Amino acid sequence: MLEVLTPAVEAMGYELADLEFSHGRGRGLLRLYIDQEEGITLEDCEAVSRQISGLLDVEDPIPGDYNLEVSSPGLDRKLVKPEHFDRFAGCEVKARLRRIIDGRRRIQGRLLGREDDKVFVQASEETYMIRLDDIEVLRLVPEL
Q1: Do 64 and 89 lie in a common domain?
Q2: 118 and 131 Cβ atoms separated by less than 8 Å
């Protein structure tokens, strides 16, 4: 599905930052998170929704009924693509890991950066090396 949606979103001048699909009772929910350097407005979400809705009607990649929702990633955005870890190096993050690493399953600290398939997070005096595959979810901590 990403191979269909990503080019369409990028052609409109946005990044497809993340995509989620959940099965609900009766209807599923396809949620797209879009981003661009200037930020995302309601009008951006509406434009992408119209374009992607038409594309999904033609391509029909999801069987059954579902709702489409287009949103910005928000202040506490999930970092999912390797380039996200590069772009947000230096920011405060919190991670939930798929397995225990150095005695911890949750880590909050400063994202130092990424090297190949590993990210580095400094929490207190410790620097944690975490493989991308070991990350269940890693989010920015909003600085208010």
Answers
A1: no
A2: yes
Residue 136: helix, strand or coil by DSSP?
strand
Mean predicted confidence (pLDDT) in 4-16: 94
| Domain-ending residue, one of 16, 41, 71 | 71
CA distance 128 to 123: 8
For residues 100 and 134, give the distance between their C-alpha atoms in angstroms, rounded to a whole number.
Answer: 9
Residue 93 pLDDT: 98
Residues 11, 52 contacting (CB under 8 angstroms):
no
Q: Give the Cα separation of 111 and 86 in Å (integer).
A: 9
Angle, nearest 10°, between helix axes 2-11 and 42-59?
140
pLDDT in tens, 20-57: 998 877 788 999 999 999 999 999 999 999 999 999 88
Q: Are residues 90 and 136 in the same domain?
A: yes
CATH of the domain at 135: 2.30.30.100
> What residue ranges in 2-125 does DSSP mark as E strands?
15-23, 28-35, 66-71, 92-101, 104-115, 118-123
Q: Which helix (H) or strand (E) holds 73?
A: none
